[in-house]
Amino acid sequence: MAVSLAKGQRVSLEKIAPGLTEIFVGLGWDVKAVDTGVDFDLDASVFLLGSNEKLISDKHFIFYNNLTSPDASKSVEHTGDNLTGAGDGDDEMVKINFKQVPAEVDKIVVAVTIHEAQERKQNFGQVQNAFVRIVDLRTEKEVVRYDLVEDYSTETALIMAELYRKDGEWRLNAVGAGYQGGLQALLDRYQPN
């Protein structure tokens, strides 16, 4: 059975799933029954950060227009954009091979943003049942899950979770931090000065 985390909780992936090397990060959400006149398009993105908590390069920002990390083994791979979020289960997924993630990557930040939120007058207060989960690719078993329960009525970007290295092992932090300003707010936060 998967470990369920609350906002701010951290867990060692090695302790809860010994030998875990390849995962997929599944992100899902549902739109509340509100009519903004336009479909919602939520996008998962991943920021590969160095020890300075900044993007190593522009190519270390993984999203629907840059699906793989720049390392030769493509250790981080976004599986593609889901334009509607319709249906149950994972709406977008990112595969990660921990053994092949370059040593220069200290942290992997997993975020969700609303595409054209300002133009479409949309925010995360109109979204429900948002979650992030870690699944062992080998066994296809869910290892850990974080369900968002907060109401983000003005936010258009969310940092869902961080995967980070500590003492030679990968750990997960259930972040759940909301931002106004959509994807640009997150890019501003992680771009090197």
Automatic annotation (TrEMBL):
It comes from the Bacteria. InterPro entries: Stress/Tellurium_Resist, TerD. Signal peptide: none annotated. Residues 1-190 form the TerD domain. Belongs to the CAPAB/TerDEXZ family. PANTHER family: CAMP-BINDING PROTEIN 1-RELATED, GENERAL STRESS PROTEIN 16U. This is Putative stress response protein, TerZ-and CABP1. It comes from Chamaesiphon minutus (strain ATCC 27169 / PCC 6605).
